[in-house]
Write a structure and sequence with these properties.
Helix content: 40-55%
Distance between the termini: 13 Å
Shape: globular
Structural class: alpha/beta
Radius of gyration: 18 Å
Number of strands: 7
Amino acid sequence: MNATSPAVEPLLRACRYLYRLPLLAWHLLVHLPLLLLLIAVGEVGGRQVGHAALRWWARWFLRIFGMRVRREGMPLPGGTMFVANHVSWVDIIALHSQHMMGFIAKHEIRDWPVVGWLSTHTETIYLRRGNADSLGGVMNEMTMRLRAGRAVAAFPEGGTREGVALGPFHARIFSAAVAADAPVQPVALCYGADGHAQSIVAFAPRESFLANLLRLLGEPSRLARVCFLEPILHTDHDGRRGIAQLARSRIQQAMQAG
C-alpha cells in the first residue's frame, strides 16, 4: 500500500489528472472509433480482428487509470460461461482485456458515457431488472450463444458491492450453462497487490458512474489481478445450485489468497 503523506496526496492527484486526462481523451476520441471500426471489420472477415483490438484497447484504458493488469490462469476457449465477483464497472474492462465475452448487464448501462457505447458494440446482453420476460430472453440468448461456441459472462451477485465481501450467487443465471452443457469458469477480480484496493475501486455510497470514473482517474498506480480459476464441468456439480456454490467457493478462496 502507498504511504503517501495526506498533505502531499492532493498534489500528486492533480499531477495524475494533468497527464492522464489528455491520454484518456485521445484513447476515447481516436482509439475508440478505430476499435469500433475493427470490430465491424471483424464481423465481416472474422471475429479475431475485433477481439484482439478490444483486448488491446481495454488494456490501455486500464493503464491510463494506472492499473497494471496481471492475468493468472487461462480463459477457456469456445462456448464458456465466465462468472466473476462484481466490484465496479472496471470489472468489464478488466475481463475484456483478457478475453472476448458477451456480458449480461443492466439495461441502464446502455446510456452510460463510453462504457454504454462500448458495451453495445461488444456483444452485451441487456437485462431489464424485475422484468420476467427480459430475463427469459436473456437466458435464451445466453444458451444459444454457448451452443454456438461463443463466450458469455455474468456477475452472479446481481450487482456491485463494496468490493470486500462476496455476496450470494444467484443460481438461476447458471441455467443457461446447464441447458447448453457448457463449462463454467469462475474468475476472481482483485484490485491492489493483496486486494486492499477493492473498496477504493468500488462505488462509494450514492456515487455516480461519472464521479467514480473521475475519482479513479486520479488514483495511484496499482495492480489489477484477473484470475481465471479451475473450470466447472458438467460432471463436477449437481445442477445450477451446485455450480453456483462451487463457483462462489473458488472465487472466495482466490480473493482470500491475495
